[in-house]
Write a structure and sequence with these properties.
This is DUF2231 domain-containing protein. Keywords: Membrane, Transmembrane, Transmembrane helix. It comes from Exiguobacterium sp. (strain ATCC BAA-1283 / AT1b). By secondary structure, the protein is an all-alpha fold. It has one domain. 83% of the residues lie in helices and 0% in strands. It contains six helices and no strands. Helix 2 packs antiparallel against helix 3 and helix 3 packs antiparallel against helix 5. The mean pLDDT is 89.
Length: 137
């Protein structure tokens, strides 16, 4: 909390941008292999910032329960679960990409890209659920 306002809405934008950009970098790395390390670093930074954003959600939950009467506990839990699922998917992506970076093979890179796409979908849905809590009436 900063002046009674939760930091969560400010912090979530970094992992969204980094994780989606990292997914794009994996795709680019199919053509230019030099982008694999850049993708890996970007995804690790996205995971770190995602963990910080996830942990900041507790104070945002308290704020929402106190100030947003239309927000239910079920809405908060759905948002939290999908955010966690997306972090898990991107964690798996990082592991697969690291193996692919070391193995120099396309199989691991392809697997990492597929899992990153799943993670991107989960992340988008988590963001959608968060937006519904704030903007839906």
């Amino acid at each position: 909390m900063l002046g009674g306002v939760p930091l969560h809405p400010l912090l979530v934008h970094a992992p969204i941008g980094l994780l989606l950009f990292g997914t794009l970098l994996i795709l680019i790395s199919f053509k230019w292999t030099s982008f694999r390390l850049f993708a890996l670093i970007t995804l690790v930074a996205g995971l770190f910032s995602g963990a910080v954003a996830f942990l900041s959600g507790d104070s945002a939950e308290e704020y929402a329960e106190a100030n947003l009467p239309s927000v239910t506990e079920a809405m908060i839990e759905n948002h939290e679960h999908f955010a966690l699922y997306s972090l898990i998917a991107f964690g798996i992506t990082v592991v697969l990409l690291a193996i692919g970076y070391r193995a120099k093979g396309k199989l691991w890179i392809t697997l990492s890209f597929v899992v990153a796409l799943v993670g991107a979908g989960l992340l988008a849905y988590a963001g959608h659920l968060g937006g519904q809590m704030v903007y839906a009436k």
